[in-house]
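User: What would this chain look like folded?
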Amino acid sequence: MNEVPYIIGFEDLSMDMVPQVGGKNASLGEITRNLASAGVRVPGGFAVTARAYRALIDEAGLREPLRGLFDGLDVNNRADLAFAGERARGWILNAELPQAVAEGIRGAYRDLCEQLGKDVAVAVRSSATAEDLPEASFAGQQETYLHVRGEDNLLRAVHKCIASLFTDRAISYRTKLGFDHLDVALSVGVQQMVYADHGAAGVMFSIDTESGFEDAVFITAAFGLGENVVQGAVNPDEYYVFKPLLEQGKPALIRRKLGDKAQRLVFDEAGEARNERVSAADRNRFVLSDDEALTLARWAVAVEKHYSGVHGKYTPMDMEWARDQDSGELYMLQARPETVHAGKKSELLHSYRLKGSGEVLVEGRSVGSAIARGPVRVINSPKELKDFNDGDLLVTDMTDPDWEPIMKRASGIVTNRGGRTCHAAIVSRELGIPAVVGSGDATEVLEPDQQATLSCAEGDTGYVYDGYLDYEVEDLELDESSLPSQVDLMMNVANPERAFTFARLPNRGVGLARMEFVINNEIAVHPMALLNPNRTDNQTRSDIRRRTEAFADNREFFVRSLSEGLATIAAGFWPKDVIVRMSDFKSNEYANLIGGRYFEPEEENPMIGFRGASRYYSEAYRAGFAMECEAIRRARGELGLTNIKVMIPFCRTVDEGDKVRAEMANNGLKQGEDGLEIYIMCELPSNVILAEEFAEVFDGFSIGSNDLTQLTLGVDRDSALVAPLFNERDEAVKRFIAEVIRKVKAKGRKIGICGQAPSDYPEFAQFLVEQGIDSISVNPDAMATTARYIREHSG
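Assistant: Here's the prediction, encoded as structure tokens.
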């Protein structure tokens, strides 16, 4: 059998060569050989094999001294660990590279320069033979050297990279995972340098890193070299691409989130990497164009499919990419199996819910969905391990692999800097603890020993509250057989940021997606103020400019933000029905939006005033409704999310229903086209009394029990004075509900309920089943309880 060469080009590598070239190099070779035809672009290069490493160790006679050095080493003793690491690295650096290895490196580098027609700068990266395995991620344990040019400099970088197999953190990591130090060898990857310091770089996953949702590609991006993103030194832009529609050729970019990208890592004149401030203009624009995000997503899907075939099982992937500043070309730099969600199919979803409220001290990006409490421990360096106690909340600027011993003891983590693919985020997921990253100023705001509650259970934003707040944890079943057979049990989902997590619960789709939640949280500006900023004051116009700077114009800001929010929900539950209710702010609620007071009337009782359907064809709001329709049209038509159905709230008369339907058609939403169905919220006595007539206009009904109760009993649900009289289970309300179910079913239309009552009262849900309702939509935290009650009490 022929010996493995000291040097092998990427084009000759494959995944069955991990023992010779390590996971990182084998993966780059696998992609180079197999996915170039799919357009995946990998910078050219070669691997210095593990045989070269072993030749250095053996020719220098270091094998037994190294074994003796590590025998019995206590890696928890920082002094002993530092001594052993420094001595091991010194021995290797003092040894000569074998002549054949050095000549092979020089020759391969000359070939690369000749191939590319210039004196090539390269990146020199480690590739340990136990690295990037699905069961253990060794990423970040060894060193990387960038901007290396010239044969002599390359030899020095390769030599130092080999020595970095024995960094303190790598020694500790291998020991704790049970790897023999002498069984793990090191290969070195030498790869054409992609200059992203004045370009861009980032990380992407072929799976949603928070929920484990498998149908989305998650991409992060920032200006400059990618180390800032990997290390969490910046809060990057985020992009989600929906795989099923991407594969159909749709522009399936369903969601973007602008990061602050405060700094970029660049090379100075001496070739050293340093951080510089990013201009305000660049911070307020997206790093990637839509086409670039879609290209990267296609690469991610291609890589995932290929590796799933190689491993014989579904293999989600963790990848690094860069955009060269000169050519503008995108490159894949690394690909490895994702190690948190891969192969983990939990039968239970732990649902955390705060029971109290308190003062928000800091907020940032949430990682995980749990809640943790503990005393604050502000730590500036991993050397401060002795000051940290089990169960403390770790608060620091940012983390790297040296922090992991402390992180394992924390109940939760808070960082000033970083996005959801930074080191702190990745490790907290592995450990199963919540983290709030990119808070900005947690180390300054939070006080040592302060009692605090960290919550990642409220969506994409994580909060740190003052004091210990009460919370509860419920184990929710994830078995589809837990759903009742008597009725379609659907879900009320308002927050797009939680859609992928909620979609893991057994369900029959979304019975209510509230558009106003997205408008309030993602947009925050009154639609008419966006269209008519000149009618507002200077401060309002300034606020609007700040929010819309990353978009072509104010209208595009509203339409795209709303479309993406709704598309995220629809994608999470695809291909099940997602019923989106058009905006149902009351005038006093609209007035609270930025610029809203300039466009809203003052009403004595907004609850029964200018709301719902009456706004849509009114000159006071018609242009705003047109933007709502455009957002739906984009999500359904351009993105292809035809599982979206539209629901009209507070429609008082049949004639009003016709007017709204015509208004929608004028704005590209024609009933019946591409399967578009239009529902009506059944929440007024007139909707019940004239149910047969409304059924001639609308495709289905959804009972809004809150407003129906209010208007049946004449109780203002905003008034504390009569609050005790508000009761959805009142006999008058129940008779109305039974009547409308009977009438609608007789007309051959669908009818469900999306109001609060069945979420609060499982016995009310059972009453609805007995009346023959088609679907019941409840809040996510009520799914398990409601399903169980219906199964147990229905024949």
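The longest helix spans residues 290-311. If you want, I can go into more detail on any region.
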